[in-house]
Design a protein that fits this description.
The complex is a heterodimer of chains A (about 400) and B (about 280).
Chain A lengths: L5 E6 L7 H9 L7 E6 L4 H12 L2 E6 L2 E5 L12 E2 L24 E2 L13 H4 L4 H10 L4 H4 L10 H29 L7 H25 L11 H11 L4 H25 L4 H31 L3 H16 L7 H12 L4 H29 L3 H10 L6
Parallel strand pairs in A: 1-2
Antiparallel strand pairs in A: 2-4, 3-4, 5-6
Helix pairs in contact in A: 4-7, 4-10, 6-7, 6-8, 6-12, 7-10, 9-10, 9-11, 9-13, 12-13, 13-14
Chain B lengths: L2 E8 L4 H15 L2 E8 L2 H9 L5 E4 L1 H13 L4 E7 L7 E6 L13 E4 L5 H13 L9 E4 L12 H12 L4 E5 H9 L8 E6 L7 E5 L4 H12 L9 H7 L4 E3 L6 H10 L3 H6 L4
Parallel strand pairs in B: 1-2, 1-3, 6-7, 6-8
Antiparallel strand pairs in B: 3-10, 4-10, 4-11, 5-8, 5-9
Helix pairs in contact in B: 2-3, 4-9
Classes of the chains: A alpha+beta (about 400), B alpha/beta (about 280).
């Protein structure tokens, strides 16, 4: 062995109290073939040091009582041979085409060579990334709320039983819609290359938002009723087209821009016409979450379209295809429509019902206007925006 | 001409399949046809080696001695052709509680915990060491066996961990473990800090090797060795395999590190039943 270049004092530290940590720190500054003298007061260190060194490919000799010389083996640096950085840490500098071999590594981490490549489907910046993602993630993280404390669950429920039934009908419909809205981002989250981690984190938070929505809708429905309303085949068929949409961009349009965008109008309507404060507050919180989801989908698609203007045509066909698929279905559950009218009316008198009906007609018009505005923002012509908005599912989501 | 090697190995853990499947892919990439046969115990493996069931055995040190003794009795020749760097120069230790016996002599009348009855490192070698110090197992002290997976020659760590835990709980007065497990049990808290100390340490011994018998296809063995020795830890393609098998470098096989285990086998008559079974006693 070469003469020791350095000396390490372990004192009374043994392998039962962290000696390996100090050793590893010390060896980090050595090159293969260089050695360090180790002085130790701990009893029994010799046999354990020999085993420790053997397992790592180092040589060790006992120089005397409590004195050892350890020579660094070539294997020590082997893990860094051929290793490469998983891009650079800042979000402003994501890799355009990250390697599938970087796998789950943190952006900017040094990745040992030899790992099996992953198969993330959304693996280029063009497909998965947009510059606004980090800010939208931060906003989403900051806006999380606790269903247990954010909603006044003990609000007295004094409205008529029929109004409560109407609300439970709507909540039943909302829960299955939010279930679809949870599954879609959850599925795409598994396909995004972790280089684009803020997109991944955003999708995860979106799924968490929907989980919370399902909870609060279910909890509200159970306040006065032990049974939920009707889940229709038409409603489920409409949602199924979202859940089974395999394309990230098309899903962003159908779910985010059109579906959740339409839902923001619906939730705002439900807040305004809520029979009591508990429902009003939970609709307000859910609408705020959904508005963020819409902003994310808009941000993603705007950037995608900027790089690939022909995407607009592909998105338009997504709307038409979904419409064709759903042509034979019933659209919005009639019970839900009637429940919305009743909630807006608040009473059974014919003039109240007429007011409620007018409010729902106005809601549908607002939904259409909102969709057309968002489609125009993405670059569709006014005519295309109007036609595509008209083809959006009658089930709202 | 392409060569073919069939390996015999003992399935002491499910990861054994992952390991030899990995080697199969590695050898195939380099044009060597490689397959393996797994046994549940080393004695069956040695028996089948002599029956010609495979070409190369991945033998425990005890299995090596068994094979070598059978070969000698039958006028044949066994050879160790390669081993891991981590198979060389191991030691075992006899641990006691901090306030326990101050010398090996003080173990008289005490209870010594050991691993599986066929474990070289956790039973045979430390008991041989104590016997060489004048302490006859069973006569001068009681032996408490922690028999886990007998037939696998202590490849399974379980027996040693049970012995160490029994020592900490005060159920035995000493526990025998290999140095690597002493290190592992200290690091993972099985042995709490300062609770135990080393009472005695064996001399250095060697562990597993690849064994062949005379009559094997020497050209195939030469290619097998060439590919093994060509494995480099800094090659990312083979490093995961070397990590799984627990080595940084393959070394030439050597048999000088098995003398103490042979003495232990003689002293305790360990080999007799197997050698009789093989018609070699």
């Amino acid at each position: 062995m070469n003469a020791p270049a350095r000396r390490l004092e372990l004192g009374s530290l043994g392998f039962d109290s962290g000696a390996s940590t100090l050793l590893a720190l010390e060896l980090g500054s050595l090159r293969a073939g260089e050695s360090v003298e180790i002085r130790a007061e701990a009893a029994d260190l010799a046999s354990q040091l020999a085993a420790w060194a053997r397992g790592r490919g180092h040589r060790v000799e006992e120089l005397g009582a409590g004195r050892f010389q350890l020579e660094l083996g070539a294997a020590h640096a082997a893990r860094r041979v051929g290793a490469e950085r998983a891009g650079r840490a800042p979000a402003t500098d994501v890799a355009a085409r990250p390697s599938q071999r970087w796998g789950l590594a943190a952006r900017g981490a040094l990745v040992e060579a030899g790992g099996a490549p992953f198969s993330f489907r959304l693996a280029t910046a063009d497909e998965a990334w947009f510059a606004g993602a980090p800010e939208l993630y931060r906003a989403a993280a900051a806006a999380q709320w606790d269903p247990g404390t954010a909603i006044p669950w003990d609000t007295p429920l004094e409205h008529p039983a029929e109004v409560e039934d109407a609300l439970v009908t709507v909540l039943t419909y909302l829960i299955e819609n939010e279930t679809a809205a949870l599954l879609v981002p959850a599925r795409f989250a598994t396909q995004v290359h972790p280089q684009f981690r803020e997109v991944l984190q955003r999708l995860a938070l979106q799924a968490a938002d929907e989980a919370r929505h399902i909870e609060v809708f279910s909890r509200r429905a159970a306040l006065r009723r032990s049974e939920l309303g009707l889940s229709t085949t038409g409603g489920q068929a409409s949602l199924r087209t979202l859940v089974e949409e395999p394309d990230f961009d098309r899903a962003a349009l159908l779910l985010g821009v059109l579906g959740e965008g339409t839902f923001v109008n619906l939730l705002t309507f439900l807040r305004e016409h809520a029979p009591e404060r508990c429902t009003a507050e939970l609709m307000r919180l859910v609408a705020a979450d959904e508005a963020r989801h819409v902003a994310f989908a808009m941000g993603h698609l705007a950037e995608r379209i900027r790089h690939e203007p022909t995407l607009l045509a592909r998105l338009a066909s997504a709307v038409r295809e979904r419409h064709d698929t759903l042509r034979a279905t019933a659209g919005l559950n009639e019970e839900v429509f009637d429940a919305l009218v009743l909630l807006a009316a608040g009473a059974f008198a014919p003039d109240a019902i007429a007011r409620g009906h007018a409010a729902v007609v106005e809601l549908v018009a607002q939904m259409d206007a909102g969709r057309r505005m968002r489609l125009r923002k993405l670059g569709f012509s006014a005519d295309d925006a109007a036609s595509l908005s008209g083809l959006h599912t009658r089930n709202f989501m | 001409m392409s060569h073919r090697i069939v390996l015999g190995a003992v399935a002491y853990d499910p990861k054994v399949v992952t390991i030899w499947d990995g080697f199969q892919r590695f050898f195939a990439l380099h044009g060597l046809e490689f397959d393996y046969v797994l046994y549940t115990n080393y004695e069956r493996q040695v028996e089948q080696h002599f029956a010609g069931a495979f070409d190369v055995a991945w033998n425990s040190p005890l299995a090596w001695i068994e094979a070598e003794r059978v070969a000698r009795a039958r006028g044949r020749k066994a050879r160790a052709i390669a081993m891991r760097d981590t198979d060389c120069d191991l030691t075992s230790v006899v641990l006691v509680r901090q306030e326990g016996p101050k010398s090996a002599e003080n173990l008289r009348g005490k209870v010594v915990g050991v691993g599986a009855s066929d474990s070289p490192q956790a039973t045979l070698l430390p008991l041989e060491h104590l016997a060489s110090l004048g302490l006859e197992p069973g006569r001068d002290f009681e032996v408490r066996r922690f028999d886990v997976l007998v037939g696998k020659h202590g490849d399974h760590v379980g027996g040693e961990r049970l012995a160490a835990q029994a020592l900490v709980r005060g159920e035995v007065d000493a526990a025998c473990v290999i140095d690597g497990n002493h290190l592992a049990f200290s690091a993972d808290g099985t042995l709490p800090r300062g609770a135990t100390r080393v009472l005695a340490q064996t001399g250095r011994f060697d562990h597993c090797n690849f064994t062949v018998l005379d009559g094997v296809n020497e050209a195939a063995v030469a290619r097998f060795r060439e590919l093994l020795f060509g494995m480099r830890y800094d090659d990312p393609a083979v490093r995961p395999l070397m990590d799984l098998e627990g080595l940084k470098q393959w070394r030439e096989g050597r048999t000088s590190g098995y003398a103490a285990l042979e003495r232990a086998c003689e002293r305790f008559g360990w080999l007799t039943p197997f050698l009789k079974h093989m018609g070699a006693a």
